[in-house]
Amino acid sequence: MKKTLPLLAFAAFISACAPTETKKETTEVEVVQEATSEEFIAWKAIDSDEALVATALLAAPKESRDDCSVMGYNMQGEWVTFKEGSNEFIVLVDDLKKAGFNAACYHKSLEPFMARGRELKAEGKNREEIFKIRGAEIESGELKMGDAGATLHLYYGPDQEYMPEIYEVRGAQYRYVVYLPFATPETTGLPIQPVASNHPWIMDPGTHRAHIMITPMPGEEN
Question: How far is Cα 94 from Cα 220, in angstroms, rounded to an integer?
Fold first, then answer.
């Protein structure tokens, strides 16, 4: 009986230790798998004019990217035309001086309106001042807003990192704007706030800058 008790105690000790060891091994394997997965995500900073152009073109529809005009600030901080295009789209590259990533693609009929905004901003005008000045110029006929229904495509996100093999920008997603100058909820049937995160709504209703906002769910294809 005296010999049996130590043996039983030893067996109980082994049984108690077994689950702890198994849990430890499983945890170590999971950590190794996570580290291995991260190593294969080769994100890098946007560090060349080529990368600026390639990542910005992701804002345009896939079938139109080869023929878009591309403009914006190059790596030296100079405003340049990277590429003259032949279709209806103008693409703006991300401004590396600003936090996060923001590339835009818009219909060429909007260029006078967009260019005037850049000009006023360079003069030091704030958002509200730019809104009022462009609005007055459109009312007088001095400035053209663009064709009704002209679109702006945005590709934006919190990080200025991309994957070179496919030029996907880390964490970026899409938003679409359809300009309908002076449109209202009554003329369009759209609400002034989104019903859900991926539902259309009208912003700046009744003004020269009235537009339909559409933000797809993150991860949806352009």
Answer: 21
CA angle (31, 43, 65) in 5-degree steps? 140
H/E stretch holding 175? strand 173-179
Report the length, in residues, of the chain.
222
Whole-number Cα distances in Å, 130 to 123, 137, 138, 140, 201: 10, 11, 12, 15, 23
pLDDT in tens, 20-79: 444 444 444 444 444 444 455 689 999 999 999 999 999 999 999 999 999 999 999 999
The CA distance from 7 to 13, in Å, is: 10
Which residues, in sequence order, are bridge partners of residue 157? 101
- For tokens 């190593």, the residue is 39
Structural contact between residues 85 and 100, judged by C-beta atoms closer than 8 angstroms: no
DSSP conformation class of 216:
P
What are 211's two structure tokens? 């537009």
**Which among 206, 52, 181 is positioned nearest to 109, based on CA atoms?**
181
Domain ranges, ordered by start, for the chain: 1-40, 44-214
Q: What is the pLDDT of residues 126-180, one digit of tens each?
A: 999 999 999 999 999 999 999 999 999 999 999 999 998 888 999 999 999 999 9
CB of 139 within 8 A of CB of 132? no
pTM for the model stands at 0.77
Which residue spans within 62-114 are E strands per DSSP?
69-73, 79-83, 89-92, 101-107
